Amino acid sequence: MLCSFIRNNLYYESLGMRRFLKWWFLGNILILISQSVLSKSDEIYRSNELSDIRKKSISIFPILMYDSDIGFGLGGKGVVKNLYRKNESFDLILFGSTKGEQWYVFTFSIPDFEIRQGTQYPICFDFKINYDKFLKSNFFGFGNNSKDNDWQFPKEFSKLEVTFGRAFTERIIGEIGLFFNHTSVYDYKTNQKMSADIPGAGEKLTSYIKIHWRRDTRDSRIHPKAGWNLGLNADFASKSLGGDYNFNRYRLEISKYQKLLSPDHIFAFRCWSQHIDGTAPFYEQSIIGGGGTARGFKADRFIGNAFVLVSAEYRFMIYKKLGGILLVDYGRVFNDINKANLHNWKSNGGWGLRYYTANFVVRFDMGISKEGTRIFFNFGHVF
């Protein structure tokens, strides 16, 4: 199985690494520019006592895992925070699996998102490059009543994200960013579910501007134990930005975190609502299913122009840095958000484990639904 994995992925790996390295060098240029710009605001941070200068911290976690959608995987994640005493952070993920996933992510933030949480800052900068390639992606058609199938196909994407933000108060944050998503969908003609007429088939580029506003009272971004997060997102994709699509995407996010009896027992709740105007590729539409939405269903299980999603988790500590959760996900997709109703929603229960480091959370979830049991491994809380 390992030999087959290496043989099938050698070409795609070299292609993905070339793209990853190209964007890595571009990222270093942007990082140098941002450090120069943001260093001028150091006096503002100090004068307002907003610069929480912390000791350098390093968190490294080796990855050896199994996921229902990607098979057995091997790799690692590392985070270095405050290396240059500018409150910055560097985050790197390198990963490969037996079902053909290759995942490389590099993220730079200044100030680091956890350091800046709950503070008023004049400007922040986030840069992210993300290459992800699946040999076994899913497509089930569109709509809430799409039928399950076992057809899978290769899909590869490269993403570049550049975001600037400002905290107008300690709780009110505004952000604006530019996003590019180059995606290739291969061998789609081998199944009648997909054709060249399906938005997203073939090799496409999606370019959009993101505007994000939120009121955030959470006590932490890594492991929130109390507070609210109310967010409004608007994405404006345009061919004038060099992409292949014109569409607008709007999402409302509400999350609540509440301690139960003790700080080690947390109730977490979220409600998301999303709607798309225009023609978006199928992988950019409103999707229910997978490790970030309904965890009892295959990735990309239900696709529509809109969705409503509700999730709840009971989080608790088991031993030292190891924690557990009980989870429920409930949602469905719609052709139009104005036609949302309470009929035929998809639901799942499940449980999971969490391992807490100083700079990130390691996540393992098992979701159980009428369509079976799914296992997911990733980093960070789902919400």
Reported CATH architecture: Beta Barrel
Provide the β-strand percentage band: over 45%
Assign the CATH superfamily. membrane protein fhac: a member of the omp85/tpsb transporter family
Describe the strand arrangement of the main beta sheet, using strand numbers: 1-2-3-4-5-6-7-8-9-10-11-14-15-16-17-18
Helical proportion?
10-25%
Sheet with most strands:
16 strands, antiparallel
End-to-end Cα distance: 35 Å
Number of strands: 18
How many helices? 2
Order of helices and strands: HHEEEEEEEEEEEEEEEEEE
Q: If you average the pLDDT, what whole number results? A: 88
Principal-axis shape equals globular
Oligomer: single chain
The top level CATH class name: Mainly Beta
Low-confidence stretches: 1-13, 37-53
Count of domains: 1
Structural class: mainly beta
Q: If you consult CATH, what is the topology?
A: Porin
Q: What is the alpha-carbon Rg in Å? A: 21 Å
What does this structure look like?
The protein is mainly β. The protein has one domain (2-379): Porin (Beta Barrel). Helices cover 11% and strands 53% of the residues. It contains two helices and 18 strands. It has helices spanning 2-39, 42-47, and strands spanning 57-67, 71-81, 89-97, 102-110, 124-138, 152-167, 172-185, 202-216, 227-237, 247-260, 262-278, 286-288, 302-304, 306-319, 322-334, 346-356, 361-369, 372-379. A 16-stranded antiparallel sheet has the order 1-2-3-4-5-6-7-8-9-10-11-14-15-16-17-18. A two-stranded antiparallel ribbon has the order 12-13. Strand 14 (306-319) and strand 15 form a beta hairpin. The radius of gyration is 21 Å and the shape is globular. 33% of the residues are buried.
